[in-house]
Amino acid sequence: xxxxxxxxxxxxxxxxxxxxxxxxxxxxxxxxxxxxxxxxxxxxxxxxxxxxxxxxxxxxxxxxxxxxxxxxxxxxxxxxxxxxxxxxxxxxxxxxxxxxxxxxxxxxxxxxxxxxxxxxxxxxxxxxxxxxxxxxxxxxxxxxxxxxxxxxxxxxxxxxxxxxxxxxxxxxxxxxxxxxxxxxxxxxxxxxxxxxxxxxxxxxxxxxxxxxxxxxxxxxxxxxxxxxxxxxxxxxxxxxxxxxxxxxxxxxxxxxxxxxxxxxxxxxxxxxxxxxxxxxxxxxxxxxxxxxxxxxxxxxxxxxxxxxxxxxxxxxxxxxxxxxxxxxxxxxxxxxxxxxxxxxxxxxxxxxxx
Length: 354
Ligand SMILES: *Cc1c(COP(=O)(O)O)cnc(C)c1O
Prior knowledge:
By secondary structure, the protein is α/β, with parallel strands linked by helices. Helix content is 38%, strand content 14%. The strands form three sheets. It has a seven-stranded mixed sheet with strand order 1-9-8-5-4-2-3, sandwiched between helices. Strands 7-6-11 form a three-stranded antiparallel sheet, with no helix packed on it. The longest helix has 32 residues, at 225-256. The protein starts with a helix and ends with a helix. Bound molecules: pyridoxal-5'-phosphate.
């Protein structure tokens, strides 16, 4: 959270303004966030999942459609596909970083494919050049789940500017939080009016209420003025926090490159990660996890591969790249709270071997 002497007066003023629902503060946060990523076509939501569900609707995904996606992610990525009534089709991941592999996506395209959903796992940008070229070839929209990738860049531009739809999450544990919330950055400004209706009960709030016709299902997905006020302030304090994630990530990249039985993730030359957490790939992953825990160093798998959940049973298929990545991945903290002493201790404990 931003410093209390800055945050609390502005929070108090919005809380007692008589306008705590969706209003000017939300529009202001959308504009500030858009300026930060370099895409002015942003819609704010009460969660990243709500933004993702709306992106799928705006992309034309509906009942019975297929969405090509990854099983190596947090559950909301793929639950949103079920929310839209569609069927997730798992493409395989690159075993070197857990991100979707463009060749595998191409092999999953069918006449029922309606969209491609890409995750930047742990903050490492997926190969957007190849994926967007492939999507253009098949005329498919690309939706990015950038919940881990605020501040990451690809081909010199911020994540949020490359595809038809890019979702960000502001829940408690992301790079930046509004307590809860999400943002959808869109390529085509023509979708924004429908997006605003979908997030507010299908109602066009600009029209007189009794003159409005609800002609498609809408949801209660809007952001409110209170969380938007927090978001606008958080943005002002974001750059040094993001810079520390990235500096810690690069420090670990340098330290672990030479370690036997261990490798950092690899990514394409156009990608510049924002290191939400730091993923190492270890031959003896469980041994490394025990070693780190014994020395008081946080470590985890963070996510269960989604194809192991029974709710996704009908999507089952062989994913050898994911098998390989999932057996080796271990995530350790590299966020703004990891100081010089902590990161030196982590690398020193790892260098001792396990
Ligand atoms: C956090 C997260 C989400 C969901 O975001 P919410 O704001 O919690 O709804 C979606 N996808 C990924 C990969 C996430 O980590």
